[in-house]
Amino acid sequence: MSLTTNWIEVCDKEDIDEEDVIRFDHGNRTFAVYRSADSDYYATDGYCTHEKFHLANGLVMGNIIECPKHNGRFDYTSGAAKRAPVCVDLKTYPVKVENDKIFIQID
Ligand code: FES
Fold first, then answer.
1. Domain boundaries along the sequence of the chain
2. CA distance 85 to 106
3. Which residue ranges does the record assign to the Rieske domain (predicted)?
4. Which site from 4, 13, 40, 41 is most exposed, i.e. has the minimal number of CB atoms within 10 Å?
5. Does 59 contact ligand 1 (Cβ within 6 A)?
6. What is the pLDDT of residues 44-81, one digit of tens each?
7. Rounded to the nearest 5°, which phi and psi values hold at 93?
């Protein structure tokens, strides 16, 4: 079975501050791309799994993204739902940095 790799360029790595998140739209999809305090990068679906609300408008605290709508929380490194009202995990995507640019691999 062959796996297709679909790496999409997001931005320069310095375009995201430490412990912050940006919104990234591609086609008709939306993603959230995170930079941790240690400057590791992560990507998840852009919408909260509770309601269709952009997580990139939320607050990053350590490995947590807090949704701005009802304060549900996820671990953005694993996608795990961490605080009600969210109970469905977020989908995560592989991230790589090459030549100071961030890429995410979407299916
Ligand atoms: S929309 Fe995110 S917690 Fe409700």
1. 6-106
2. 27
3. 8-104
4. 4
5. no
6. 999 999 999 999 999 999 999 999 999 999 999 999 99
7. -135, 145
Minimum CA distance residue for ligand 1 atom 1: 51
On the question of pLDDT at 99 being above 50, the answer is yes
Residue type, 38: D
Closest by alpha carbon to 46, among 64, 63, 67? 67
Q: Which atom of ligand 1 is nearest to the CA of 68?
A: 2
Ligand 1 pocket member 102 (CB < 6 A): no
Instruction: Decide yes or no: CATH 2.102.10.10 for domain 6-106.
Output: yes
Contact 46 CB / ligand 1 (< 6 Å): no
> Which is the closest atom of ligand 1 to the Cα of 71?
3
Residue 88 pLDDT > 80: yes
